[in-house]
Amino acid sequence: MRVVSGIQPTGSLHLGNYLGAIRNWVRMQDSLEEGSQCLFFLADLHAISMPHVPAELRAGTLEMTAALVACGIDPDRSILFNQAQVPAHAELQWLLNGTARMGWLNRMTQFKDKSGKNREGASVALFTYPVLQAADVLLYQASHVPVGEDQKQHLELARDVAQKFNNDFCTEDAPVFTLPDPIIPPEAARIMSLRDGSSKMSKSDPSDMARINLADDADLVAKKVKKAKTDPEPLPSEAKGLEGRPEALNLVSIYAALSDCSVESVLAQYGGQGFGAFKPALAELMVESLRPVTTRFNELMEDREALDAILARGAAHAREIARPTLNAAYEALGLVRG
Ligand code: TYM
């Protein structure tokens, strides 16, 4: 089993990232069997697909490294690195550009969402973004990719690219790529914005009130939860009573995910009560759950050299693992390299 996943080092780590992906990374790392491996990386090459400030990307890369370690990613057990230190990601992307089809990329919802009305002005990198993401996982023969629901389409594309490449350029008994399986947590697949239950919690939301950042202090968390959008009805006592109430569903789902129980059991406890009672309980649960992470994050940020060293060591290891697959891809395509 090889587990591979990534996160963009832009903006701060928020509750959606944590519950949708990072908590699963840590669980998979902690339950790994002998001979299996986890690779987690900062998708800094993906981050340049949108307008960005170089100094912020540089600072954000170290900050996200600290955040991941604070959440429980152990650089002695998992390979933690940033794409920019492993050129094989960009190389394999180019090789896969020959296999990925324009029609496949045209169907990607992320490109439509992020380019908005200004499609002509979007970067080429934003369009080919999913091919780099395919390279990220195929390079390491990933079998499992823990992600939130929003990355499912990209993972399907990675499987299509792998399958077509294997069909077009390999014999049946010697495929170059493994088809990766996405691992999506059922209870926290899609954490929504606190201001709008129909859009996902996101680093790029202009309103900081829409998300809980892992670095927010207790007062700010309480304020954000208090101001979170809701409806005037009390909580129902069964899950089907949350239909058509996206904000209420989101808050109950967050509570369920943080306390590791089902939506039903949260409703068994809070059904019939109004948000005036539920919100303070939710805020307290968030603060208690995030406190150890925030404390550790602040400690780690004191020693930037140690964070650099973690990435350099992880990248050296990743380069080694990547080499045979990259060589096999060049070879399969008939590219002469001396
Ligand atoms: P990114 O940086 O947007 O998010 C990192 C991870 O957090 C999950 N996530 C969420 N889960 C639930 N609810 C939310 N509101 C929420 N917001 C974010 C994402 O699904 C993701 O798992 N393209 C990727 C990074 C990437 C990658 C990869 C991931 C690059 N290469 C290869 C997996 C494999 C991204 O931008 O994630």
From TrEMBL:
Describe the reaction catalysed, as an equation: tRNA(Trp) + L-tryptophan + ATP = L-tryptophyl-tRNA(Trp) + AMP + diphosphate + H(+)
Protein name (Swiss-Prot/TrEMBL): Tryptophan--tRNA ligase
- Per its UniProt record, what HAMAP family does this chain match? Trp_tRNA_synth_B (MF_00140_B)
**Listed GO cellular component terms?**
cytosol
Q: Which domain of life is it from?
A: Bacteria
Task: Tell me a GO biological process for this protein.
Answer: tryptophanyl-tRNA aminoacylation
Q: Which UniProt keywords apply?
A: Aminoacyl-tRNA synthetase, ATP-binding, Cytoplasm, Ligase, Nucleotide-binding, Protein biosynthesis
Its quaternary organisation is: Homodimer.
Return the motif ranges for 'HIGH' region: 9-17
- Its predominant location is cytoplasm
- Report the NCBIfam families cross-referenced here: trpS
Look up keyword Aminoacyl-tRNA synthetase and say if it applies. yes
The entry's ATP-binding residues are 8-10, 16-17, 148-150, 191, 200-204
List the SUPFAM superfamilies hit by this protein, alphabetically.
Answer: Nucleotidylyl transferase (SSF52374)
- Cite the GO molecular-function annotations of the record: ATP binding; tryptophan-tRNA ligase activity
The subcellular location is:
Cytoplasm
Name the residues that bind L-tryptophan. 136
